[in-house]
Amino acid sequence: MPGAPLTNEQRFALIQKYIERMPSLSTTVTKVLEVCNRPNTSPNDLNRVIALDPVLTGQVLKLINSAYYSLPNQISSLTRAIIMLGINTVKNLALSTAVVGSMGREDSFRSLSMDAFWTHSLCVGVMAKALAKLKKIPGMMQEEFFVAGLLHDLGKIPLNNCFAEEYRQALELSAIEQGPLPKAEEMLLGFDHGRAGKMIADKWQLNQGLTEMLRFHHTPEKASPDNQQLIGVVALANTYANLFDVGSAGDRYPEMSRVDDLLTQVGLKWHDLSNLHSVVEQEIEKAQVFLQVARETS
C-alpha cells in the first residue's frame, strides 16, 4: 500500500540530504581553485599543485592536445600547457572535468536522457563562449562562459534522480502546457532546479559567479550586477539550445516573452545567435572531449 505523498518540505529535505552526501571535489581540484583565486598566482604555483596528481595532469594534457584547442603542435609539458592555456582556463578545465566526472554517471539519470542532457549542456557552453567572444570579452575570461554553460543545469540531476516519477510528470506537464520547466517543477515538487543547483554550488564552494548562475540562469535579473552579463549570456545560450532542440534537458518551451529583455540586457540581436549556428555545431563536436576525459576517470 503506497505511503502518504511527500510534502514539499519533505522533498526539499531529501534533496538537501542527497546533496550533502555527494562526494566532495578532490583535494587537488579544491587546491587548484584555492590557488587560482589568489591574485598573484603564477603558472609555476599551479604547476606545483597539478603535478602532484597524475590523473589531473593527464586530463590537462589530453584536453590541450584535443581538437577543442586546435593547437598546431603536441604539448607534453604541464608547465607549457598552463602557460599556453592560461591559469584561468586550466582552473576551469579541472573544475568542469571534476564536476562532470562526479555527477555525469549514467545511474544519475532516471527521468532525463544522459546523452541528450550533456549534448544540451555542451551546446549552451559552446554558444555562451561564442557570444562572449562576440562581446569582445577578454580571451582568458571566455572559458568561464563555457564552463558556466556546461554546468548550468546541474540542479536537474538530483531532482530527476530522487523524484523520478514526479520529475517525469513535470516534464510531461511542461510539454503539454508548452511552458517553462521550472514552473512545472515548482508545481510538482515545490521548488525548481535553480534552488538545487545553488545547494550543489554551496556544497562544492564554487565561486559567486557560478553559484548565482546555477541559481538564477532563468532569472538573471536577480543576480548581483557583477554577474548579470555572464548569467544573461548563459540564459540566451540556453534559450538557443532549447529552441533549436540541440540535445535536451527537458525544457523545450522557454519563455519567449523574456528573450527581448535578455537580448537587451546582454546587448545582442537574435541574428547574432542564429549566425553562429554552424560554428556552434562544429564546436560541440570538439567539446565532446570534456565528457570523454571526465568519464575515463570517474
TrEMBL record:
InterPro entries assigned: HD/PDEase_dom, HDOD, RNase_Y/CdgJ
CDD domains per UniProt: HDc (cd00077)
Q: Name one Pfam family in it.
A: HDOD
Residue ranges occupied by any HDOD domain in the UniProt entry: 22-220
What protein name does the entry list?
HDOD domain-containing protein
Which species expresses this protein natively?
Thiovibrio frasassiensis
Q: What is this organism's lineage? A: Bacteria, Pseudomonadati, Thermodesulfobacteriota, Desulfobulbia, Desulfobulbales
